[in-house]
Fold Prephenate/arogenate dehydrogenase family protein.
Amino acid sequence: MSFERVAIIGLGLLGGSIGLAVQDYLPGVATTGYDADPATRARARELGLAGTISDTAAEAVSQSDLVIFCVPVGAMAAAAAEVAGSLRPDALVSDVGSSKESVAKALSDALPGAAIIPAHPVAGTEHSGPDAGFASLFRNRWCIITPPEGADPAKVKALSEFWTALGANVELMTAQHHDLVLAVTSHLPHLIAYTIVGTASDLEGVTQGEVIKYSAGGFRDFTRIAASDPTMWRDVFLTNKDAVLEMLQRFSEDLTALQRAIRVGDGDQLFDHFTRTRAIRRSIIELGQDDARPDFGRSDHGGTEP
Amino acid sequence: MSFERVAIIGLGLLGGSIGLAVQDYLPGVATTGYDADPATRARARELGLAGTISDTAAEAVSQSDLVIFCVPVGAMAAAAAEVAGSLRPDALVSDVGSSKESVAKALSDALPGAAIIPAHPVAGTEHSGPDAGFASLFRNRWCIITPPEGADPAKVKALSEFWTALGANVELMTAQHHDLVLAVTSHLPHLIAYTIVGTASDLEGVTQGEVIKYSAGGFRDFTRIAASDPTMWRDVFLTNKDAVLEMLQRFSEDLTALQRAIRVGDGDQLFDHFTRTRAIRRSIIELGQDDARPDFGRSDHGGTEP
């Protein structure tokens, strides 16, 4: 089983990249795109993000055997409601959201009876909108598929093959476990980065000009992920609240311990901690998820992935 | 006035890069290097990090009119004590430490009567040791010089011209202001990165293998600066304690506010904060201190600079 026509609802960085990737890597598969924003639809037509750009979500999905929602996770319920009643009975419904338990619920509530298998391609850049998409975004990145209990194995297989065709490495896990893993590998780092960039911009003793001028001292790296799409990230934190707050609690405890070590001048504790974290960096490079080159191989693909 | 012979005490990333840069960009200037570690001295000879590698610090400085200490800031006092009595009377003493008030005091205590003008080239990578150095490390990076009150203007000018010759943009400020600016642009980001990498490696629900596997979700960027030299960073936090603790306090307050916004579901507060930080990223790119390309132009130079 494979798909004949894919509908992409939401034509930002992820949706646009899927449209371009399907046209490049699955030329036999038709693509239809829709975005709630008329300006984005117009731009998507100019850029050819999909074979057809429909003016309604219902029209976009009506012929499709795979429907992928690529909207912020907080907008999934409304986007799904727009297509209720227009889906092909055999259609598989999926998404690309960064939190999975809440999206699974939003989609199944809005589309009772539909076959729903959520997914999360762990790929992206700090840029957003229809102009940010590119066909190779998913190559050598992970796509996590979270099949609900009782999901049709044939549909899970077809969705896995779809993402593999776009260049992704597919992994299956429960939505709950996905949300825990991403809370630490993606959501907490983004929240920390958003926080420190805000802190640095609110100082009296140091001008914002100085912060920017000397940002190469380390601050710069944080500003990059703190430039990610505000709507997407607001929704991620609100929809993966429990896991994010749990990770945040642990982080705050660890930060307090290092803060105390600095205050009391416990150099050994600092040295031991910094040595341990250095080893983890080595493992990441050995596993090929980063690169010791100055650009950490980012020139090969899309940069930091939300 | 310019320098005829430069002594480099400490042949790690910074000292080795200065030795290579002087040989490339100031071929008329002689270089003598010393490192307390015999293995590092042997490697420095193989790599040609300086024209001469001396077996004692006293011998290295005896003929030099510029002496640059390139050791961890916690080791400055001991390194300076080793050359007391061996300095040329007209020698200028400087350093490359990341905290400046404490280093200025350590050097002047150990070398009473010597002409001392501390400096901090805001340049480096997460790598360390004699093999990590390269001649172009300082090109287009900032070098902050912190002349003490009453410093000889001719010597300040000569030191500025020295760093300009190595490719750096020179800025003058007080040691106290330097320590405040670097606390936010460099020291706090490194402490946060060290913390989150430690937090992520201590989870029960998520394996370290999963953290590494999905690190491209944002976590990866933090591991890079958390791989910086543990000795250097231990000393930075202990010697710039007050400014770091002040910034840490502000960061913790801001983090608590965002944590509360997540807990109570205040999406507007999150959205407003994330929009503001995005604008700061734009300013950094406009000022040329970072780059919107996936590798943020890191391939042009040395990566994240401590």
Summary: The domain at 5-174 of chain A is CATH 3.40.50.720 (Rossmann fold). Strands of chain A lie at 5-9, 30-34, 52-53, 66-69, 92-95, 115-116, 119-122, 142-145, 169-172. Confidence is low (pLDDT under 50) at residues 293-306 of chain A. The two ends of chain A are 30 Å apart (CA to CA).
